[in-house]
Amino acid sequence: MIKPAEKRESNSALKEKERRQQTIIGIVVVLVIIAMITGIIITTYNAQNADTKNKIEKTIKAKKSLKAVKTAEKPKNMNNYGGIAISKNGYNNPVKGVPTIAVYFDPMCPGCANFNQNIDPYLVQMMEAGQINMEIYPMSFLDPLSTDHYSSRVTGGIYYIADNSNNPKSLLEFISNIFDKDFQPDEGDRYTPVSNKTLAEKAIKSGIKKEVAENAFQRHYIKWQKTMNTATPDRKELWNISGSNAGSMTTPTVTINGHIFDMSKVNANNLNILNEILKSIGLDEKDLGSATVRPKLDDKGTPAAI
């Protein structure tokens, strides 16, 4: 028979044993949780590292593929990435000390037309005043959405005009005219063919010489165009940094001194595109187009965040 004292002693020992077991179990659970968390962190980190590495490799490969196209198959009046540089001084003669605003577009892209019709007139105004330099990057990735290679004919024509007509103002006027809401064709099933003659007439009305306009829309530089269509979206510096398309390129794409202008953020917050561009380069709206006032942002600085 167990005596009360012995029973109390036994119960005390049992409780102590249970306490130790619970403590040990608690420690094990904590260690398991820590191990799981560590595993998640390591897995996520490794996945992010791999993803970053893949993105870097894609960007390097894209830039190499652009350089690999033979000179004879490339437009002459462009930079290494397909940009046609325009300033108040003409082609490839930038104004020193002012920012460069670049626009990537496809002639069939509705959003590109909207940007062109609403914002480009102000960009041209600033460019002509020497407040900014411009770069335009015509692309033709929407070619399959027409029945007659509309995008590649127009994009080839833009490059051809830049190569054969020393009049960037007329080129910009032509681009504005093809983006006019009464001219730009619909994509896909609703596409209506546009003849080379019609495009040439648009170019001539924009101030392009007849002999240049009539030869401009023969799908010039097609190998370059195809390479650019494939390589340009793989350039990390052109990827959206916010919104549902973060991590990929969409058009229109706008950069300021090579830094992406966050169009997704502007649209998501119902901001005014022009106002945000002016803020990014440090220019008051009242000074837009003034030949005596320069933006605070120079040709090497980083634009202000939106």
UniProtKB/TrEMBL annotation:
Keyword Repressor: no
Membrane in keyword set: yes
TM segment ranges: 24-45
Pfam families per UniProt: Thioredoxin_4 (PF13462)
Thioredoxin-like fold domain span: 100-265
SUPFAM superfamilies: Thioredoxin-like
InterPro entries linked: Thioredoxin-like_fold, Thioredoxin-like_sf
UniProt keyword annotations, A-Z: Membrane, Transmembrane, Transmembrane helix
Protein name: Thioredoxin-like fold domain-containing protein
Organism annotation: Gardnerella vaginalis
